[in-house]
Amino acid sequence: MRLTNSQYAEVFDRTSGLGVVRACVDLVVTSQKGIALVKRSIPPQVGAWHLPGGKIESGESFEEFAARTAHHDLGIEVEIVGAVGGMNFPAEKSTMEIDGVECEIIVHSMSVVLHCRAKSLDIRGSAEWKNVGWFTAAPIPAHSIHIPWLLEHSFFTPA
After folding, report:
1. How far apart are CA 43 and CA 125, in angstroms?
2. Once rounded to an integer, what is the mean pLDDT over residues 7-28?
3. Which domains does the chain carry?
4. Closest by Cα among 34, 64, 61, 60 to 51
5. Mean pLDDT (the chain, rounded)
6. Residues sharing a CB contact under 8 Å with residue 42, sequence separation 6 or more, in sequence order
7. Contact assessment for residue 132 and residue 37, using Cβ atoms and an 8 Å cutoff
8. Distance (Å, rounded) from C-alpha 27 to C-alpha 83?
């Protein structure tokens, strides 16, 4: 049995101070055009450019996650090159719907970052990520939580 999004949000709302950590994966999708980024249209950080990614489902492998996320967020297939690091967000404010009501919750998320090669250059957005693009340099303004990580790990060079 899988939790609904509402049940999932409620679990994290009720356990945020109890050491429950949300397991996530982010994808650094590269091609000759650059790195694929998605512009958030959902909380948190609405309007910021981010890596495609999110929570990993129970029982889902990295390969399954990468295929699902690349298809959903970018409309393409990818090949995993390898794990390239991790990110830790210990007190991330988020807005989630609980029983039909938008609630602000605090979530501790840890993310494994996978480097993937795009099998296609023709990316498209989704309901959550209406704007997507290939970037060879950090977007300005770079107020995303992911851009400093990409700079630190030499995926982008400073502008």
Report:
1. 16
2. 71
3. 5-152 (3.90.79.10)
4. 34
5. 82
6. 128
7. yes
8. 9
- Residue from 134, 133, 130 nearest 47 by CA: 130
Kindly write down the DSSP assignment for every residue of 49-105, as one continuous string: EE-SEEEPPTT--HHHHHHHHIIIIIS--EEEEEEEEEEEEEEEEEEEEETTEEEEE
- Check pLDDT > 70 for residue 92: no
Residue 18 is predicted with a pLDDT of 53
Structure tokens at 76: 């393409």
Q: How far, rounded to the nearest angstrom, does the alpha carbon of residue 46 sit from its chain's CA centroid?
A: 13
Tokens linked to 121 = 């250059």
Cβ-Cβ contacts under 8 Å for 53 (sequence gap 6 or more)? 24, 25, 26, 27, 69, 73, 111
